[in-house]
Amino acid sequence: MRLECRPMTPQTPQPLTFDSLDTSSRDAVAELFTRTFTASEGEREGILVGNLASELAGLIDDQEVMAIGARQGDALVGCVIFSHLQFEHASRIFMLSPLAVRTAFQRQGIGSQLIRHGLEELQRRSVAVVVTYGDPAFYGKAGFQPIAPGTIQPPFPLSQPQGWLGCSLMGEPLPALPGRPTCVRPFRNPAYW
Q1: What is the pLDDT of residue 191?
Q2: Do β-strands 129-133 and 93-101 pair in parallel, antiparallel, or remain unpaired?
């Protein structure tokens, strides 16, 4: 038997593409969030966040819930979800949560690119403010700032109030809004807050 060795030609990775997702992405979104959060936070957190992401992905309608995906070829390697927060007397305010980038693709700026694409799309839709509940150091790089008490309340009391952050998309200070907003159904679980 004769073996022939040939030098391997390095494969160039496919470029990333960013696009809006729809409900047909639900299973891929659930798998991405479950695996990513299980790897970083443990199985319990992976299941919790994976279920949340699955529920949100099932509601994508580009009005109340919007999602942006990062793909390499057909593989979903990152996703960010935005959902509407309804205040009694307020304009369009959305919440960024959750966000995940597949473990092998982390620390390459994909999360920041997902946020940028999402904020640009929301700005085109005349959304005034985006809030999030997360790491101030990470989200601060995307322009999110701590929300002063009494300015924009979260839907539920927070276990880590320093993580309640906001970003004005209209170049104006964050508005002071009375009362707690109503969030989309999947977030109506105090365990997320």
Answers
A1: 85
A2: parallel
Q: Is 169 left (phi over 0), alpha (psi -120 to 50) or beta?
A: alpha
Decide: helix, strand or coil at residue 57: helix
Amino acid of residue 1: M
Report the greatest alpha carbon distance in the chain: 80
Return the pLDDT at 18: 96
Tokens of 14: 């496919």
DSSP secondary-structure letter at 64? S
Structure-block tokens of residue 181: 């907003």
In the predicted structure, residue 9 carries a pLDDT above the cut 70: no
* H/E element, 59: none
Cα separation, 190 vs 47, in Å, equals 16
The two structure tokens encoding residue 159: 């276990």
Q: How confident is the model at residue 149 (pLDDT cuts 50, 70, 90)?
A: confident
CATH architecture, domain 16-22+63-192: 3-Layer(aba) Sandwich (3.40)
